[in-house]
Fold this sequence. Notes:
CATH class of the largest domain: Mainly Beta
Number of domains: 2
Radius of gyration: 21 Å
Helix content: under 10%
CATH topology of the largest domain: Jelly Rolls
Amino acid sequence: MANELIKLTSPTTYTQVTAGNTGDILIQKTGGDVGFLADPTSWALYADSTYTDVSPLSINNAKVQIACDGLGGTTNKTQLSPNIAITDLWDAVTNRITPVNIGDAYSLRLTFDAQGPQNAYFDIGLDISSDIINSPIVIARETKIHPKGTGVTSGYSFDVPIFSLSTFTTNGGALFIDTRDDAIQLDIFNINVFICRVHRAIGAEV
């Protein structure tokens, strides 16, 4: 992503330039007269505090949206850029990814622990529809196997690069687990969602 170059009036004094949000900050190059708008990448890790090994999210022969309240002790939002017009990359109320612009790109990782029948299989995916059951729009999906015995915990990771066009930007993105194909019950816990904004849409100012 290219930085936006701006000529300063002197090495130490310059007029603040508005681009997108009023008050965007220029970073001055040491000893020079050129500054640039800070690159608006961001990342955050959202850890769930609701579902645990003793109180898991049970998915029984169903497609269920993943919930993550972002209140777990390892949640880290220190790298959300102050130069972009968002307060979060994940909405803990709707449990959806919240893209900034049409044309942005993101790196996504969902991790969790699960217990289920040995050798059972299930799907993990990302759905950008407003109704993931009746009118799904699945843009990424992966089938996983539970290789361990019943009652034994397996760890899972769903890693995918994604980009946001109009539907995704309007609806947000819902992560889901679907156990219907194998008609199983899967109990999941220790849910974490990592989102990194890696590209700002061309022409976008935030």
